[in-house]
Every structure is written in C-alpha cells, then in structure tokens.
C-alpha cells in the first residue's frame, strides 16, 4: 500500500476527463430521446435501494473515464485497506473500522487489528447496550424513586448527536408512545432548558454521549443536567440534599457512551453503566456504535440490529461489486465530476420523506467534516477543489423555498432525490378539492407525483417554443423557460425500514470515502474544528469581565465583546 496519495490530476484518466469535458454538451432530452436503454443501463441496485443515475449529466464515456480514474487512484486497494483495518486515518495514525461495527456475527475469518479481536469486542459491547435497552424498556431499570423511565435525554454534539437524532426521527413509527427520546446538543442554555422544562425528574434518564468525554458543550450540558436532576428530585422530596443521595441519583439517572471510561467515572457515572467504543470509529461514523444506545432504548435491540444489517448490505456491495456497478463508487465519482469538471460547489439532498427531515443535517457533518480539507493525507496541498457543500430539506417543503434556484439559477446543483414506495402513515384525502385532487386521493401518491415531476422538470426543462405554444406573451417567454439539464439522482426503496435507513447511511459514508480517495485526503480526521474550540476557551474570560483578556483581543472581537458586556 502506497503511503503517498496518487495525485488524481496527474493520471491519464484525469487528462482524458479534461478532454471529455472540453467536448461535453449536456443533453438529457436528446440522450433520452435517442437512447431507450439509458434509464436501465444507468440504474443500479444496492441492498433494497434502486439508484437511478440516468438523469445525471454523464454519458457512457463519462462513467468509463470516472471508473478508470478510480482505478488509477487505487480506489479498490483503499477500500480493502479500510475494511481490513490499515491505518488509513494517517494524521491520527488510526484504523477506520466503522464497517466492523456491522459485520455479520460469526464472519470468518475473524477481524483482528493491531492485536485487538475486533469482532469479539464489538459483539460484547452490542450485547451490553442491548441488555441495558431491554432493562429500560421493561421497567426493570428504574430511577431513584423506583419509577420506570419515560424520557431519555441524549446529551451529545456532532456525531454523538446528529446520527442518533436523525435515526430517531426517521424510525419514530417503530417507537413506543410511553418512551420518548430528546436530544440536547447546543451549549446555548435554551436547548437544555426547553428540553427539560416539562420533564419529570423521577422518570428521566440522561445518556451522556461523547467519544472523548471532553467536549465543552456536552460536559457543560451534562453538569447542568445533573444539577437540574438534583434540584428537581430534591424539590419533590425524592432525595435529601446530601452528597450520597446525589451520587445515588446520578447512578440511577445517568449512563454514558464514551471511549474515555476514566472520565465517565470521574463525572460520577457508574462505569458499569458506560458503553464503550473505540478510537477507530470516527464521531460522524458512530451512530452504529454504542452512540446509538438511545436508539436501542427507543426502538429495542432488534430494530437496532436490523439497522446494522442494512449498513452491512451496502458495505458488502461496496467491497465486492465491480466499480462499473458499484453504487457508492459511481455516486462518489459523479460528485468528483461535478465538483472538479462541471464547477458545482454544492450538492442538494432532498428526501421525499418527512421522517428524514434531519438527514441533510446529518450528511453535512458526514460529508463536510470528512472532506473539507486543503491538504492531502501526506500533508501536501490538494491539487484540485475538494469537498462539496451538502444541504437540503425534505420535499415538498423545499419546492416552495429554494427549488427556484435549482430550476432556473445560474449554478449547477446536483441533487439526490430520495423516496419510498410505501408510507409510514397511509392517508387519503376523502374530500379532495373537486379540481386537481380527486376525492379519496392517496396522499402519498400525490407526494410521489411531486418527486417524479421535479426530477423530470429539472432534467428536461421546458423550451421557449413549448412556452410560446401555451400562448405566453413573448416578453414573458424567457422567464418561463426552463433550460433543463439539471442533474439529479433518484434513490428509491420499498419503505423506510430500519434496514433501508442503514443502507442509506452506509451509501453516503462510502460516497464520502470515494471522493476523499480521489482527492487524496484523510476523510477521517477533523483538525479544522480544533482552533475554534481553543479560541472559545481563550476568549471566555474576556466575555465574563476580565479586562486584561479583553485587551488581548483583536479590535473587532474587542468591540463585539464590549457590546455584549454593555448590553447584558
Ligand atoms: O466537531 C468535532 C467533533 O470532534 C466531531 O468529530 C465529533 O462528532 C464531535 O466533535 C463530538 O465529539 P465527542 O463525541 O468526543 O464529544
């Protein structure tokens, strides 16, 4: 395995792609009109996902050259290096083994990395999480006054929040009415205050989720939650105002998920109630580790295992499918095509599923913390643009907000559309509106019609002649013309099951990895968030009133802090 990344821009395939780009003319209307096999040829499956790439700005030659590029940057070797535990997180000298969290039990040969029996440790921790989840769900686990848990509050941020909250929202139909999970992440005191305002301390369980157990936001919120618990339990006469009673309350109402078990104990949480994972699981890749404890509690261990099985299906596809049909590889390569050749800066993710309303936010950390880098894994500068700004909202809400820019703006915005054949909540509009919507209309079908219509409109647009043919006044024709050739990928699955959700997440994890390999970057470190954390601690004394610390600030920061101090 080479230690230096191949510079993609020096490969023969990159040169060919540059040439191809010179003569490239996107023509989705023409391609579909003349090539009846396009949709079938450019549609692929992974697990339960149907992925239609045919409405992208790409021809057979584009795909051939992109696949050639993937081979020339050694993508197949890098995939194998990841799955087998090589230290591909170079800047932190770590293996990258989130895929080990979802290996099938009993897989042969067992995975042993750096002397660690990975499968054994993963299975043990999963069992521990499952047993705990069952205890909470059955009521065997109780608070200090003997009452069962009714609300779980997960305190975490970044990967220790975004994954769990996204999955919780997505799988709510699998939950129980008498067991709610809330998520506190922001150090803005509003978050904890609002999420705990109506809670009964006797039936509340906090899960402090932090890989490092050193993150300012999470530890501050955990301390505040602990104080809230003591205060409220004391107020209802449930505990005395003494140290032993408080410690007992923490042991009954707090558990932790972390790789730093010594710090967990120092906080007062019983180490027996701490669920571990390992430094080879990056925060943004950790929802399938013990970081998902809140999910195992909410939905039960079986649903959590089904989620893992979905991840596994796409892992196996990614590892074993030839690049020509390898969905994460093709989608990652298309993103490279858009970013480096067609000048796209952003990428929209548009789930036609209200349950996925936190999916774009989740993907923002996954993709942008992974690939927002300017140096390659050997420390040399990158040789081309990296990273895309991922963003999105569920359809149809987005249609009435930002789709205008995707349809008629000047920028190329590749967009992934995601939809499910079967809704979680089938509803009919019994009345209809007597015009466009017939009485008894299946509302999910109306929803899907929007999904299909949007990708059609984006791909094929509406020509000036078509606009004129509708009798439009000439001066309005250009405003009403749609250029088309706006690229989209459509992803469909039978239903948003736990397994399908796992498949979707694994798909985007691997897409992110593929892009990182082409750009030669370490997609698994995140040094870029460190400076802001350090400066926040340095500026804090100035904010609280320390004039010497204030004098050390730059002129702009000083004025802003002074404004705060004058208005507090
Ligand atoms: O934002 C930086 C980061 O380290 C993320 O990568 C991580 O998901 C988040 O902070 C939370 O970290 P921890 O789980 O250690 O509290």
From TrEMBL:
It catalyses: alpha-D-glucose 6-phosphate = beta-D-fructose 6-phosphate. Keywords: Cytoplasm, Gluconeogenesis, Glycolysis, Isomerase. InterPro entries: G6P_Isomerase, G6P_Isomerase_C, Phosphoglucose_isomerase_CS, SIS_dom_sf, SIS_PGI_1, SIS_PGI_2. SUPFAM superfamilies: SIS domain (SSF53697). GO terms for molecular function: glucose-6-phosphate isomerase activity. The keyword Isomerase applies. Coiled coil: none annotated. Pathway: Carbohydrate biosynthesis; gluconeogenesis; Carbohydrate degradation; glycolysis; D-glyceraldehyde 3-phosphate and glycerone phosphate from D-glucose: step 2/4. CDD domains: SIS_PGI_1, SIS_PGI_2. Signal peptide: none annotated. It is found in: Cytoplasm. It is an enzyme of class 5 (isomerase). NCBIfam families: PRK00179.1. Catalyzes the reversible isomerization of glucose-6-phosphate to fructose-6-phosphate. PANTHER family: GLUCOSE-6-PHOSPHATE ISOMERASE (PTHR11469:SF1). This is Glucose-6-phosphate isomerase. It comes from Isoptericola haloaureus. The gene is pgi.
